[in-house]
Design brief:
The two termini are 36 Å apart. The relative contact order is 0.13. Strands 1, 2, 3, 4, 5, 6, 7, 8, 9, 10, 11 and 18 form a 12-stranded mixed beta sheet that branches. Strands 15-14-17-19 form a 4-stranded antiparallel beta sheet. The chain has 2 domains: 12-257, TIM Barrel, CATH 3.20.20.140; 270-363, Sandwich (Immunoglobulin-like), CATH 2.60.40. α5 links the parallel β5 (148-151) and β6. By secondary structure, it is an alpha+beta fold. The chain is built from 9 helices and 19 strands. The structure holds zinc ion (ZN) (2 copies).
Amino acid sequence: RTIVFPDTEQYVTLVVDLHTHSVFSDGHVWPKIRVAEALRDGLDALAITEHLEYQPHRLDIPHPDRNRAYDDAKAAGRNSELIVIRGSEITRNAPAGHVNAVFLDDANKLLKVDNPPSNPGDVSGYSTAARKWPAQKAIEAANAQDAFLFWNHPWWTRQQRDGVTRMNAFHADNAKNGLLHGIEIANGSTYSEEAFQVALDYGLALIGVSDVHDLIDWDYQPHNGGHRPVTLVFAEEKSAGAIKRALFANRTVVWFRNLLIGRVEQLLPLLEASLNISNLSYRPQTSVAEVTITNISDANFELRYVGDYTFMYSADRIRIPAHEAITLLVKPGDTLDRVALEFVVENALFAPGEHPSINLSVSR
Ligand SMILES: [Zn+2]
Ligand SMILES: [Zn+2]
């Protein structure tokens, strides 16, 4: 069930989930379980991003220190290769909505609660008091720590009735001033084309997350071939610093329900690394060519051929399952020394509704 994508020619490909919850806010598992799930999924990095202002388990788990979930996860992952990133979810109503800040030094500085209710079990009273501190102050406090900030689920129907992401003045100003750096385009089971367009329009990093509150196994059924949404990060090396630099440089591709979504500059190198064509030969006494296309990634590729040749085993649509190879019989008309095939990759997007094409060529 580990999530596997190949490195590109230039970068190592890291699998990252930057938005999860534990009992320290409104999740239902201990941080150690998040770490165990991340290891099972083969993640390279994980952030547990608790709501700073909303703690429904206050009566049972009072934790004035907002770094506790990180500290516990960090300890749980200490004998593994998993990179645990300190993060928090700034939680307000629209227009700020929810914003994650990751690579923090101290989460407590993003929260200021004047006049909290005297009853520690008063969850909504506490939340109301905590949300009075302006969202912009929390955004600035996170930026003072050089954190990476992204707008969470901007299409969330509880705050956006029609489910359509629209840029607003709050986030547009922060994006222009360098205080907002990314935007979720996939969260849990939902994707937003409009958020994708906002990311392209405002130069924001494309982020895909699980936002898991329960169990990854329940929500995504990896034993049945499912996977959590993740952000593939193209980094110089596997380290926290390199991930942070890559995020600030927008070097990401989102993997959501078998869709690979990214800017052309990141998407094409990933597709080229994932698919490989080889073994050009000709059937005896014919000019019918046989080639092998190998997929070394977790994506099930859906390709549509757009060239002039025709095939013998299929029409123009070809499916190459994850980590499998297929044989294609092509009729180039002659025993060519080199055969080039152009495909549209239907399970990839470089802009809303726009699928990239790749050229696979093989020589004898
Ligand atoms: Zn949220
Ligand atoms: Zn969340």
